[in-house]
Amino acid sequence: MVVDNAAEGSSGDQQKSKKALKKEAKEAAKSAKKEERRQQNARTQDEDGEDYSTGRYGNLPMIQSTEHVSRTFTPVHDLTESLAGSDVWVRARLHTSRAKGKQCFAVLRQQAATVQAIIAVGETTSKAMVKFVSNVSKECIVDVEAKVVQVPKPVVGCSQQNVELHVSSLFVVSAAKPQLPLQIEDAARRDEEEGDGLHIRVNQDTRLDNRVLDLRTPANQAIFRLEAGVCRLFREILQSKGFVEIHTPKIISAASEGGANVFTVSYFKGSAYLAQSPQLYKQMAIAADFDRVFTIGAVFRAEDSNTHRHLTEFVGLDLEMAFKYHYHEVLNTIGDLFTQLFRRLQKEHVGDITTVGQQYPVDTFEFLDPPLILEFPAAVAMLREAGVEIGDEDDLSTPDEKLLGRLVKKKYDTDFYILDKFPLAVRPFYTMPDPNDSKRSNSYDIFMRGEEIMSGAQRIHDPDFLTERAKLHGVDLEKIRAYIDAFRYGCPPHAGGGIGLERVVMLFLGLDNIRKTSMFPRDPKRITP
Questions:
Q1: Do residues 120 and 230 share a domain?
Q2: 295 contact partners, CB below 8 Å, separation of at least 6
Q3: Are 384 and 476 contained in the same domain?
Q4: 301 flagged as catalytic
């Protein structure tokens, strides 16, 4: 039997070829599935933002001044329609954020200015980036690259209402803890009557215990900008009137005003005191021919007063001025100082006043120009007519002052007035008596909204008369020897007074507690933070 080896070989090759084709087809299918899975994974990665947004978001390393970066940042309050279409960088705090599908709506805050920012999945913004931004904690400081876009409707709740930011990059510069001891939104909530439906309130102690957070609210930002404005205007107005700014010691050898309410401090091998007032040094400057002086600085009062208007440390705005013949030359200067200051505050800080009013509603501060000067006997008569029992030589109690303020507002339509010619019996030994009435003095208090914000007088500038008055008040002459000696070489007649900065701001804005106008208040129960 003859075997056809060629045919047999051909059949084997065909079987082999079929197996190879089958194997190749199997491999091809496997490769196709693998490629499909790879593409699916790629699509998933794109959706998660792990690919094309890399380098556009994340946590920056701690800035330690290792390099110079040339980058211009735009302040939030400058984000207006004029910048629509522009690309900007902004550094701000993440005030709030809310994820919604493939978008995250955020509010960025820089001091009191806020703007809405939108992070949405797009060509440069991945889902992973949106997810990252939505998980950034409130109050983190972030750098944002974005396009300014004009909006068709005002963005309610933001100061920049006509534009929003479409974010392309966002980096965390400084992280905040996820759990905050108070929410900025709660601390900034409008001060309404109970029953407004919003019962979330941040009490005073919680605010002060977490003062750094509390100070971030728009109202607090505005309060302290206005407070800085008071200092600036006090300085500018007095300098325009020929006053010279001086700086006085805060560590002194004896009580400034002869009283006991002083803080004693260790001073090497002995003791010293924190100054209750710069009065002695202001008067010494007048005796040294400076003629008109003022000072701005800390004042310390060791009074155990836990009221809405007392602090143990506050900022004193003090002035002293020589005059020619009558202390009203000084009183009129002080009155004009205040009316100029109020007018310029209402003009130059209208935005701050409005911002504070949005949280703490109050009537606009009213004043007369020139200011009302009311003599003490006339004030007593008004109080008696209102049913108050008060003697001719009695001092005013706090309730009396508040009632008088309401009576004056009703009769004269002013929140600001000067009360002149106080009873001599209730004033310090260095106050000049009224030459025409032995029961009166050449002294005055100044009031805002029914509360005293300045006390002043003509000072006794004759050393012998000053000694006589000190003895009459039982003052230890040795403790005030330096004070009396300051007038032994001739001193012009002069008058002045001291103003409490925090109290002025509190009453101008109509706030209910002086701790709202002291950045880090000190009282008998608080010496921190």
A1: no
A2: 245, 246, 247, 248, 278, 281, 282, 316, 318, 319
A3: yes
A4: yes
Q: Are residues 134 and 76 in the same domain?
A: yes
CATH code for the domain of 166: 2.40.50.140
Q: Is the peptide bond before 361 cis (omega within 30 degrees of 0)?
A: no
Q: Active site includes 247?
A: no
Tokens of 395: 């001092």
190 noted as active-site residue: no
Residue 109 designated active-site: no
pTM score: 0.87
User: Is 451 a known active-site residue?
Assistant: no
Q: Which domain holds residue 156?
A: 58-174
Among 211, 225, 310, 522, the one annotated catalytic: 310
Whether residues 315 and 430 share a domain: the answer is yes
452 among known catalytic residues: yes
pLDDT in tens, 458-503: 999 999 999 999 999 999 898 888 889 999 999 999 999 999 999 9
Q: Name, in order, each residue with C-beta under 8 angstroms of 445's C-beta and a sequence gap of 6 or more.
A: 418, 419, 422, 452, 454, 455, 456
Domain count for the chain: 3
Find the catalytic residue in 56, 93, 216, 301: 301
